[in-house]
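Hey,

Quick one before I head out. I ran the complex with manganese (II) ion overnight. Inputs first:
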Amino acid sequence: MNNLKNYILVSDQVNDALLHRKPIVALETTVITHGLPYPQNIQLAKKIEDTIISEGVTPATIGVLEGRIRVGLSQQDVQKLATYPQAEKVSLRDFSKLIAQQGWGGTTVAGTMWVAHQVGIPVFSTGGIGGVHRSLAKGFSYDISADLFALSQIPVVVVCSGAKSILDLEATLEVLETYSVPVVGFRTNVFPAFYAKGNGGLKTSVVAQNAKEVAGFVKTHWDLGFRSGVLVTVPPPDESALSDEEMEKFIQIALAEAETRSIRGQAVTPFLLEQLTQLSQGKSLEANLALLINNAKIASQIALAMDLA
Ligand code: PSU
Ligand code: MN
């Protein structure tokens, strides 16, 4: 890691797990700084870590604090980051700026994948990845998340519930195909729509019945020399999933509001998520929390299985 050591600070616990080759699951922090309201965000962060620990795996929450890339944030660190008023969203292009300016930020899926890979953590759990945004005007959307680019370049397993239905899911899957990123459905071939299970129109490229199958598949992909990430999609748990129709209604309202207020660039995703929480009177938030915990559990099982694969 030579020069990188000066920039990335790894906690003792995560260092110990790395040293002894114990399974680790990386976690992102944009979901804390920009994805969920306070204090649900920090309560959830704790629950996710507890879930991972109860599976016998070490959690590694990643973020940027005072210009330092940190792996293995403590609860106090998470609290500080969640309440820091100018916390930014850190994707691949943003690390150098934040380091130069001693800034604070939550790492996106792309940012977290990169850091995880630099320190040697191959499994990462999140809620939903970014993707191709629906075009507000008719036609092609140039708002395509760097998460997709990162998936094409960085060999990390990303466990999620697909991409939020605020996005153009069909276009998102097409870009993943172009980028040659395998999309593994966990016990289903339906590409999930985050809060909703998905209407079945969009399919994953492969199905795995359990964590061991995922681990075997990932090993083969990387043994063959491919250097992309692997996306593992887990449908949201039954109890909290919303219906596709209900969700679509709220999304249309949120998109129209974003257009009226000329929301652009990095602000688009956080704005839409916040609108949906309000419109669904917290139901989307409930679903979000439930699937984040479920995904952390499955990611832990994959991390355990990858050790043996
Ligand atoms: N999806 C969610 N919640 C989130 C995000 C996505 O359900 O908080 C965050 C993730 O960190 C993701 C980022 O990497 O938004 C994508 O942002 P953008 O579309 O600007 O790339
Ligand atoms: Mn964007």
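The mean pLDDT is 94.

Talk tomorrow,
K.
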